[in-house]
């Protein structure tokens, strides 16, 4: 998988992972988070390397189907992009700002943006 | 249902409705969007009033379970609250602002906020 694909899978997992079976979640976490190889995961569960591969593919397809139905990752990404734009505009204003009170308000807005769970 | 409960059900439906069965979605839309009564929906599908009631309750519980598992509505609401705060801060700055260029930038930020699919 390419970097973008891995990042997208990770985001899909973050959103919809709890809808997968326990086994699918275990395998995905060992592969994507612990970076174990297919063979290592196969050993862990006493199943074939092919079995691990199939579990991963089935889980990824399930995640993609959830996104096709719900589109919540895409909605989230749009919101994140918009907030990124706002953040840059605030930085621009802060860089030019000479008024102390305005600077304080801009700092407060930055704090709110930073606190967002993105 | 109280107003808050109805609003919450509507938000849950907006997020997870596509995971319900077609029949559940039809009944929920007739009840919550078209404002038909249970009896009217019962006539529509040639089922009992109790059947409609049960379908609605089952669907609502399914939506609540999705939210318990995924928490995406809650994540979205937090983000919306934060953006509301930013919006009010920007309004405060704009009200005090005398510099034309700053005012233009603030207007741009308001545009981005308004464009957000919330």
TrEMBL record, chains A, B:
Q: Highest taxon of the source?
A: Bacteria
- Source organism per UniProt: Zhenpiania hominis
Q: Name one GO molecular function term.
A: DNA binding
Keyword DNA-binding appears in the UniProt entry = yes
Q: Identify this protein by name.
A: UPF0122 protein H9L42_06425
- The keyword DNA-binding belongs to this UniProt entry's keyword annotation: yes
| UniProt xrefs under InterPro entries | RNA_pol_sigma_r3/r4-like, UPF0122, UPF0122_fam_protein, WH-like_DNA-bd_sf
The free-text function statement in the UniProt record for this protein reads: Might take part in the signal recognition particle (SRP) pathway. This is inferred from the conservation of its genetic proximity to ftsY/ffh. May be a regulatory protein.
Q: Matching Pfam families, A to Z? A: UPF0122
Keywords of the record: DNA-binding
Q: What family classification does the UniProt entry report for this protein?
A: Belongs to the UPF0122 family.
């Amino acid at each position: 998988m390419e970097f973008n694909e891995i990042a997208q899978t990770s985001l899909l997992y973050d959103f919809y992972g709890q809808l997968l079976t326990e086994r699918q979640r275990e395998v995905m976490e060992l592969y994507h988070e612990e970076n174990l190889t297919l063979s290592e995961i196969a050993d862990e569960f006493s199943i074939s390397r092919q079995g691990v591969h199939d579990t991963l593919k089935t889980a990824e397809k399930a995640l993609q189907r959830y996104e096709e139905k719900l589109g919540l990752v895409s909605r989230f990404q749009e919101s994140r992009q918009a907030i990124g734009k706002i953040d840059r505009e605030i930085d621009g204003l802060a860089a030019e700002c000479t008024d102390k009170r305005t600077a304080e308000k801009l700092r407060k807005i930055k704090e709110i943006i930073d606190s967002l769970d993105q």
